[in-house]
């Protein structure tokens, strides 16, 4: 039997709010489908995308604002989104992003994968007696060999 | 920037904060102007949303910046995502700084202008061949006229690209025509042993004198502004470096083609020596000039970097030299070549100083490096004075040949420049001068250098009977 300790979120001690915050790796992994899905709702720009993320996650998905932009640029480079500059009502120049056809395909693929992961987790959660919180800080995994 | 000024409205303070933050971002090469604009838009939106919730502008700014993430983390993330920006790709991409691309109208047009002029220079250099003048190392026609196969094309490039008045264009054309007519009409005596001394002097000084004309074209006629002349000095240093790099590349290309064609027993030597080498050499000057302009503000200027690397080393060598001289009690052995050697030293130190201060932040605090620089100039002056002293006592034995007079003149010209620089530098380090005074001195001195070079190139030959 092996005990795998759950990784603590990578945060400086004391700096983070005590509320539950999601593991950095999970945040990173979910950023692509999240941004693509929000853009699939309609064209948007950085600040509004972040607002939508907060709204959708009830504030639990905490992104450092600036980090969204490298993600957007990566998606743009991969051809999943495209950008254009427009004049916002404030008079400032603003960069809007739009999802491309390739982006929509990618979104569908991401969605399939996340659903698979989600289903697998759901099954194991319901199979476990006592619910997901009982294991505390360690996850119990039966050794297969 | 961060301090509050009494009487400034809160909005001004916020603007200054945002400016400072943006400036901080832009220090990283990984974040372009466009990225900074995008991030600034986000920051402003966040601030206005927070102030609507009741925060003061100051508080809103702090919270917004905090949410944006530490600038260091941000730049690291951008650098990770855009690593190519750290290795600025060589031109032609048009990608990258969109602000810059729109301002200069893109690189495409200027590239074609430069290429056309490079080809024109390459053709021009072969025209004398039609009249039986060959580059054979005996006839000094090509060395004498090398300026006219290169500089007018660089001038034409800038005259084409810049707002240069019609009068200025005619002046520049006139200068080149007159200079070309003069040096080719001079009845230099042809010696069986080689080229006449005054002709060699003209060959050496003509490009320096005419370089000023390139400067006038480069700054688009705004020659009276000290900053414009400083830009021209910077351009000169970068041009030299680019040219050397292109020449190295050309050398590799030629060596490879020799090797390849030798393998199939085809002799390409006449082709290389008669065409590729001369045409490439003159064409590359225009291409180098274009490259410097195209890459300006995209990559760090190399000349100041090299200057900073070598200034401590030269200082060390010169100090050791002076100390050794003092300890061993050896005087400078007056050879005929000593004047040339000292001249070269002055030229190198002059170049190091000019390129080092050209990149100095005018408002940066004085530091250790400034003192090293001043030490270098001071030691050079000492060595030069010692050498001049030694030569002065023997000059009557040698007699005043044109060569010696030219070398002595250049020595005095550079000595005065360095002495003036040392004086101004010292004043600056003591807090009673400024870097811009030093710049003004160096850039105004261009006239003196070009003036002396013109005297040697055009007055010496008739003065010494074209001997």
Rounded average pLDDT of chain A: 77
Spatial strand order of the main sheet of chain A: 2-4-3
Q: Profile the largest sheet of chain B.
A: none
| Number of beta strands of chain B | 0
Structural class of chain B: mainly alpha
User: What are the low-pLDDT stretches of chain A, counting only 5+ consecutive residues below 50?
Assistant: 1-19, 134-140
Q: What is the beta-strand fraction of chain B?
A: under 5%
Assign the structural class of chain A, choosing from mainly alpha, mainly beta, alpha/beta, alpha+beta, or little secondary structure. alpha+beta
Number of helices, counting only DSSP H or I runs of 4 residues or more of chain B = 16
The rough form of chain A would be described as globular
Strand content of chain A: 15-25%
What is the CA-CA span between the terminal residues of chain B?
A: 64 Å
Number of helices of chain A: 4
Summarize this structure briefly:
The complex is a heterodimer of chains A (145) and B (467). Chain A has 145 residues and is of the alpha+beta class.
Give an overview of the whole structure.
- The complex is a heterodimer of chains A (145) and B (467).
- Chain A has 145 residues and is an alpha+beta fold.
- Chain A is built from four helices and five strands.
- The longest helix of chain A is centred in the last third of the chain and has 27 residues, at 101-127.
- Chain A is globular.
- The N and C termini of chain A lie close together (10 Å).
- The model of chain A is unreliable at 1-19 and 134-140 (pLDDT under 50).
- With 467 residues, chain B is mainly α.
- In chain B, 76% of the residues lie in helices and 0% in strands.
- Chain B has helices spanning 10-26, 33-52, 57-68, 71-81, 98-103, 108-130, 141-161, 166-185, 197-218, 226-263, 269-295, 302-328, 338-358, 368-398, 402-429, 435-463.
- The longest helix of chain B is centred in the middle third of the chain and has 38 residues, at 226-263.
- The relative contact order of chain B is 0.08.
- The chains are: A alpha+beta (145), B mainly alpha (467).
- The A-B interface holds A 45-47, 64-67, 69-70, 73-74, 88, 90, 92-95 and B 34-35, 37-42, 44-46, 67-69, 73-74, 77-78, 80-82.
């Amino acid at each position: 039997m092996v005990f795998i300790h759950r990784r603590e979120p990578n945060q400086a001690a004391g700096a983070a709010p005590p509320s539950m915050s999601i593991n950095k790796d999970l945040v990173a992994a979910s950023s692509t489908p999240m941004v693509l899905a929000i853009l699939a709702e309609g064209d948007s720009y950085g600040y509004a995308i972040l607002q939508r993320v907060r709204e959708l996650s009830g504030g639990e998905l905490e992104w450092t604002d600036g980090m969204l932009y490298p993600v957007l640029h990566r998606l743009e480079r991969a051809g999943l989104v495209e950008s254009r500059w427009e004049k916002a009502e404030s008079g400032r120049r603003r960069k809007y992003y739009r999802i491309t056809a390739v982006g929509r395909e990618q979104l569908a693929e991401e969605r399939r994968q996340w659903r698979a992961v989600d289903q697998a987790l759901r099954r194991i959660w319901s199979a476990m007696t006592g619910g997901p919180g009982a294991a505390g800080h360690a996850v119990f995994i039966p050794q297969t060999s | 920037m961060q301090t509050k000024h009494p009487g400034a409205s809160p909005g001004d303070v916020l603007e200054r904060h945002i400016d400072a933050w943006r400036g901080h971002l832009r220090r990283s090469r990984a974040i372009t102007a466009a990225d900074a604009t995008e991030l600034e838009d986000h920051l402003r939106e966040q601030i206005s949303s927070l102030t609507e919730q009741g925060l003061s502008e100051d508080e809103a700014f702090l919270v917004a910046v905090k949410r944006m993430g530490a600038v260091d983390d941000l730049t690291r993330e951008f650098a990770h995502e855009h690593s190519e920006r750290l290795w600025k790709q060589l031109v032609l991409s048009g990608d990258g700084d969109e602000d810059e691309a729109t301002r200069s109208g893109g690189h495409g047009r200027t590239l074609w202008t430069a290429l056309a002029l490079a080809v024109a220079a390459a053709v021009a250099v072969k025209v004398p061949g039609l009249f039986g003048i060959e580059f054979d190392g005996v006839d000094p026609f090509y060395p004498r006229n090398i300026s006219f196969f290169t500089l007018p094309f660089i001038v034409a490039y800038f005259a084409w690209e810049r707002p240069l008045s019609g009068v200025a264009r005619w002046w520049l054309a006139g200068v080149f025509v007159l200079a070309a007519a003069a040096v080719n009409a001079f009845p230099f005596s042809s010696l069986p042993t080689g080229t006449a001394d005054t002709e060699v002097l003209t060959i050496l000084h003509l490009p320096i004198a005419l370089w000023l004309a390139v400067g006038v074209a480069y700054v688009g006629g705004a020659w009276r502004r000290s900053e414009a002349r400083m830009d021209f000095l910077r351009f000169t240093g970068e041009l030299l470096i680019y040219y050397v790099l292109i020449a190295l590349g050309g050398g590799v290309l030629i060596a490879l083609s020799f090797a390849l064609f030798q393998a199939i027993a085809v002799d390409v030597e006449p082709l290389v020596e008669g065409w590729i080498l001369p045409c490439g050499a003159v064409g590359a000057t225009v291409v180098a000039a274009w490259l410097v302009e195209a890459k300006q503000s995209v990559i760090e200027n190399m000349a100041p970097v090299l200057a900073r690397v070598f200034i401590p080393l030269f200082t060390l060598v010169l100090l050791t030299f002076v100390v050794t001289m003092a300890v061993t009690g050896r005087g400078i052995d007056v050879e005929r070549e000593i004047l040339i050697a000292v001249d070269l030293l002055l030229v190198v130190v002059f170049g190091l100083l000019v390129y080092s201060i050209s990149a100095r932040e005018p408002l940066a605090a004085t530091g250790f490096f400034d003192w090293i620089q001043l030490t270098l100039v001071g030691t050079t002056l000492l060595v030069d004075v010692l050498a001049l002293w030694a030569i002065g006592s023997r000059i009557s034995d040698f007699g005043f040949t044109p060569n010696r007079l030219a070398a002595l003149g250049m020595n005095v010209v550079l000595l005065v420049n360095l002495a003036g620089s040392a004086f101004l530098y010292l004043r600056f380090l003591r807090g009673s001068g400024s870097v811009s005074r030093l710049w003004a001195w160096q850039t105004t001195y261009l006239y003196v250098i070009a003036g002396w070079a013109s005297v040697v190139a055009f007055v010496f030959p008739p003065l010494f009977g074209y001997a």
